[in-house]
Amino acid sequence: xxxxxxxxxxxxxxxxxxxxxxxxxxxxxxxxxxxxxxxxxxxxxxxxxxxxxxxxxxxxxxxxxxxxxxxxxxxxxxxxxxxxxxxxxxxxxxxxxxxxxxxxxxxxxxxxxxxxxxxxxxxxxxxxxxxxxxxxxxxxxxxxxxxxxxxxxxxxxxxxxxxxxxxxxxxxxxxxxxxxxxxxxxxxxxxxxxxxxxxxxxxxxxxxxxxxxxxxxxxxxxxxxxxxxxxxxxxxxxxxxxxxxxxxxxxxxxxxxxxxxxxxxxxx
Amino acid sequence: xxxxxxxxxxxxxxxxxxxxxxxxxxxxxxxxxxxxxxxxxxxxxxxxxxxxxxxxxxxxxxxxxxxxxxxxxxxxxxxxxxxxxxxxxxxxxxxxxxxxxxxxxxxxxxxxxxxxxxxxxxxxxxxxxxxxxxxxxxxxxxxxxxxxxxxxxxxxxxxxxxxxxxxxxxxxxxxxxxxxxxxxxxxxxxxxxxxxxxxxxxxxxxxxxxxxxxxxxxxxxxxxxxxxxxxxxxxxxxxxxxxxxxxxxxxxxxxxxxxxxxxxxxxxxxxxxxxxxxxxxxxxxxxxxxxxxxxxxxxxxxxxxxxxxxxxxxxxxxxxxxxxxxxxxxxxxxxxxxxxxxxxxxxxxxxxxxxxxxxxxxxxxxxxxxxxxxxxxxxxxxxxxxxxxxxxxxxxxxxxxxxxxxxxxxxxxxxxxxxxxxxxxxxxxxxxxxxxxxxxxxxxxxxxxxxxxxxxxxxxxxxxxxxxxxxxxxxxxxxxxxxxxxxxxxxxxxxxxxxxxxxxxxxxxxxxxxxxxxxxxxxxxxxxxxxxxxxxxxxxxxxxxxxxxxxxxxxxxxxxxxxxxxxxxxxxxxxxxxxxxxxxxxxxxxxxxxxxxxxxxxxxxxxxxxxxxxxxxxxxxxxxxxxxxxxxxxxxxxxxxxxxxxxxxxxxxxxxxxxxxxxxxxxxxxxxxxxxxxx
Lengths: 268, 679
Fold this sequence. Notes:
- The complex is a heterodimer of chains A (about 270) and B (about 675).
- By secondary structure, chain A is mainly β.
- Chain A has one domain (about 1-265): Beta Barrel (Porin), CATH 2.40.160.60.
- Chain A has three helices and 14 strands.
- A 14-stranded antiparallel β-barrel of chain A has the order 1-2-3-4-5-6-7-8-9-10-11-12-13-14.
- In chain A, strand 10 and strand 11 form a beta hairpin.
- Chain B is mainly β.
- In chain B, the strands form five sheets. Chain B has a 24-stranded antiparallel beta barrel. A two-stranded parallel sheet of chain B has the order 1-2. In chain B, strands 6-7 form a two-stranded antiparallel ribbon.
- The interface between A and B is medium-sized, with 16 and 20 residues.
């Protein structure tokens, strides 16, 4: 049974490589994973152009438990340092379990032009290690863009692995090329809606995602979202206390079940 | 000033000339019913709802006395809107001007426009209610319809398998109203193929339904004798008659109960026959009810005389053949119980308990997927429900238990998150051994049983011209179902955008996608499940030319895929609606072209019909369909309707199957209706 389950998950991982991809922290995950047109410290992971909007340095860490009944998990940490019009970001992510591990280390540079246009480029090192087979590495480049024509609206686009590079040693695994386009709109002080369309270079078809954040109090926010292909439902809540914010998220995949997640962030 | 005059004033006030009170088929009500009905993909009888809306249009509610429950009859209002209106009145005192509606939260222009025909502002209490004359109204309507081509069931006289009666359908409805308080109705129906004769246990028509209904008393708030409906809570335990499920209207997913109602539909099952009353003591309300009626059931042939039991209950109400007639009235059903509820401001809490008793027990099913179906002869249901409006949120839930077996629950939260955005989330969990014979709740399957699901929806009104709605639903069926030999799951996505650049033009785009699991097509005792996916793309356009003509178009594409099998289909239609102001004649027609690969890629479309009738037929295979509807007002009291519809198929020499088989490539039906009103 255990072997059966393991093999099932290894097959699913092939798909999960695309679905799982980059974890943008609990907040952006629970808003339907629509971070391409949102701005916070976790933008380093979803669309680094967003970090150019930050006013102060910030750090964040997250832990996600993937797929109930397995030991698979995701851990990630981000650091952003803004410098006037420029911003620098570092990200680290690990996904997998003892027999299968994916690591990703990213360095991002973002610049804003006026208060409306934000751009970024991101250099990543990927490592895939399966102890019983060995390990492989590879580099990729991401680019992102955000346009904020008004205080309420943000339009964003992000492409990951734009050179379509892959792991060395013919590892057989791919670094996905993915294009995300989206928009977010702040309807009121309390309500933020965000949507995105995401497509990859595999034949899984595109995904449409929508999410929202509703601030019940200035410190407390509720979030929810959906992705239609693959079908995912998201929910979460966040609490801000002075410089610290704690965010919880849970995503529910049609077949794979619930993935709970927790994130912490500190703004200097 | 008369109501008509009053309404006219408002019409001018809001610069909408077409809102003049008309006694005849009202385009506003028709559009309303269409938006409600088009989401339902089953044959429902909308006549009751339609009749009620037309009645309310002529006997509108006073905004200063209307209750939340009465507002719920206006199906287009969400519970949050209804409660906001009541709360506004509570906090700001009686309405003095209809313009005030615009000040209420969630009352956009389009909502007010729909609401206006059904409400007015009564004069202050100083002038006494007695000033309002109690108008009486007697209405008789008869409908005759038949299929013109000869069907197999009427030809083979000698065999046992043939229709006993003539091929026409005949309905007679008699209604009496005295003001808004007293009503009485008598409905008689003979379906096509049923006998119309007197004599040996036959009484002319095949179906009779009658009731007397009194409302508005101080203690006895409602009283029904005869046929009635009960709609309480979220419909998990006790809800008979029409109910709506998932649809493009996101807020419609929350059910608004209307309690005890008279029954006036021609649907021959799913109602109560007996007596019921709603008794009020301040904030408390009791609704005791009792019902006894004969129902149709298939008997199990048994060897001993004592253990007569039944296989299944039949709800079609059709008694055309020897076999159908043999099921008629073989079983009797006694239902009795009571509902108690408490209401205060935005809160309603209720509990109900009732028992359903059959004269002969239902037998255990031999098919595995029906293993958990109800068996026995007595079922007791108990339920707890509530709904509560707090600030900009509306929450509701119902928990129900069928004694000795399972539980079923539903709970939801709806919120208007900003002036433009509202969202809803709804969770349901119905155990496979939960039973209720009167339920109507949110389901993807065939009843409140064997289902878990999470629904979430979003509605955005960007401005008065543009709106967008989107929902997703995830559902799981823990036990097998018909044609599904194992636990299965699925999802549904619907999104719709509406753009109305002005009041005369409306463009709607809709996409719907459904994914489910179903048995593969290999002949086997037990089958594997394969994925099944269906996608619909729809464009609707409607525009007005002058005051008299409205044109409507729809183009729809469907793609169906099950395992390796693929089907696709399309439909395109043109509607022309002619409705002169105050003219004697009005009418509409449609020409539709359709081409689908088969049953799985069939398309549904709403069709206009004679007054109170509505149809949502399936367009399948390929061909042309058209219909013509006409209404002619003979005098003040008499109206006539005529409808002719015809479908001509491409490359077919037979239509339908079994006893309904028509040889030839065209099928046409005709309907004639007369209404006589005495005021």
